[in-house]
């Protein structure tokens, strides 16, 4: 591999770039981004070596697509149109069914590997890129059987170097599971932020009274609407299901409180404490 | 000050003890706890110098009450009964109205200072105690006018040494504000944990798929039910109000999704992003 093209040089694309540059400085990393100031920033941060355009993609050994999922769905077919028969194209979107569907009949479907590296922060843009972001994180690969074996192997080599653990899953199962463990967390945090901001008109009060607990629970409410609106749109059915169950659990909790059933609340919380053991080691 | 008694040598009591021991090693710290193994642990961790009982409280210059709020409400009157006229008694509970009410007519009301240091972690017990936990954190003091001036001054000296910022508030305002910025966060996290655990019967799936985002949003679901059930009980009316508004915001979000109003979702999230600026510096 000599030429890697990163489409979208933000948190994910930039972090992948950092890892690759560190591990193999001989590779030339080309950046493509609709926002030219991001490209300039990415060059000055040494995330990419040079700017490029979609027309250059025929030179790519590897293309990493790390843009919002709606843009991926739209652009992926023409990205595949532009690459050579030997190129590998990887996406990193937080939804998989719509993206896989967008290229299911593409003549170069075998050049594409659908992945979702479960890593990130609440920040975005080139400055948010972090070295080692993917170490010990899970990378979900979907529809591996549709990717050429040789290209799949090339991807695994890179993921291994980045320290990722691989899990294979079909796109529908991915979208259903991830709605619970990721998408719902974001809505929960956004709505917590909204509820507090609406109530506490005096921002000094929020600042003074909020402890690290609130800061942690609301952290994801800092996330980019550009990134997250299309995720909710593409995963609409699953996300609505998670919201139904979350709202129903909150309503039950409220009803326990109204009925002074604090023993039930205690037992509920004690059972949920089990999340400690499940999460041990994630942090 | 020579003799400090800490009632409840867990996360809060133990952390206060660590700070005091560091800043003034000549003070003797006595521990009282209904759980004798906590006392033994606190001694071996050097959080306290010796075990004590309620009968010893007449020797105290300062008593710190750091036990669940229901126990504080019940025990505070007899703690005040037992201390000398010159002793200062401080609580650290996450609710203030019920606790202040429990001693409003106590002959030694002037010996009591109602406080809520906004600091903590999701862990509990002596092992959870941390040095410097209170540095740069807010300490809310309620009904300061009911505490003897001299004793209030003694408290401020300690809080200053611990690095805390003071805010004065009446108990009702405290309970109303804190329901939003603290109590609701806990319920939001607990119910998120519940929703995910109920759905993902295969715990390996939660572990593999959960990123740092889920871990952060659900973190408070590790909190102690012994501590939190009485808080919800004492602050019932306010907490129910926050739940009503949180559920209503979640329901509106869901309705936007069902109606494909993704522009409204985008705008909502963009406004909520403002929490970034408000929280800056809390972390």
From TrEMBL, chains A, B:
Superkingdom field: Bacteria
Location of the Prephenate/arogenate dehydrogenase domain: 2-283
Protein's UniProt name: Prephenate dehydrogenase
EC number from the UniProt entry: 1.3.1.12
Recorded GO MF terms: NAD+ binding; prephenate dehydrogenase (NAD+) activity; prephenate dehydrogenase (NADP+) activity
A Pfam family that the UniProt record links to this protein: PDH_C
Record InterPro entries: 6-PGluconate_DH-like_C_sf, NAD(P)-bd_dom_sf, PDH_C, PDH_N, Preph/Arog_dehydrog, Prephen_DH
Keywords: Oxidoreductase
Biological processes, Gene Ontology terms: tyrosine biosynthetic process
């Amino acid at each position: 591999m000599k030429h890697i093209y990163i489409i979208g040089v933000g948190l994910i694309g930039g972090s992948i770039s950092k890892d690759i540059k560190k591990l193999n400085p001989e590779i030339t990393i080309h950046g493509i981004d609709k926002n030219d100031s991001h490209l300039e920033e990415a060059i000055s941060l040494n995330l990419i070596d040079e700017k490029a355009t979609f027309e250059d993609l025929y030179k790519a050994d590897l293309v990493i697509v790390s843009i919002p999922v709606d843009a991926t769905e739209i652009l992926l077919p023409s990205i595949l149109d532009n690459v050579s028969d030997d190129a590998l194209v990887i996406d990193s979107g937080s939804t998989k069914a719509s993206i896989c569907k967008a290229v299911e009949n593409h003549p170069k479907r075998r050049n594409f590997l659908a992945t979702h590296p479960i890593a990130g922060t609440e920040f975005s843009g080139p400055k948010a890129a972090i070295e080692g972001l993917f170490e010990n994180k899970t990378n979900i690969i979907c529809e591996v059987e549709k990717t050429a074996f040789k290209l799949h192997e090339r991807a695994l080599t890179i993921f291994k170097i980045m320290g990722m653990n691989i899990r294979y899953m079909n796109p529908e199962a991915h979208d259903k599971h991830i709605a619970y463990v990721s998408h719902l967390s974001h809505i929960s945090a956004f709505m917590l932020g909204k509820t507090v901001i609406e109530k506490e008109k005096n921002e000094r009060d929020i600042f003074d009274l909020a402890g690290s607990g609130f800061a942690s629970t609301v952290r994801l409410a800092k996330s980019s609407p550009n990134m997250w609106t299309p995720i909710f749109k593409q995963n609409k059915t699953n996300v609505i299901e998670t919201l139904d169950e979350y709202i129903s659990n909150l309503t039950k909790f409220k009803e326990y409180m109204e009925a002074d059933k604090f023993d039930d609340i205690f037992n509920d919380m004690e059972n949920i404490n089990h999340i400690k053991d499940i999460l041990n080691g994630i942090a």
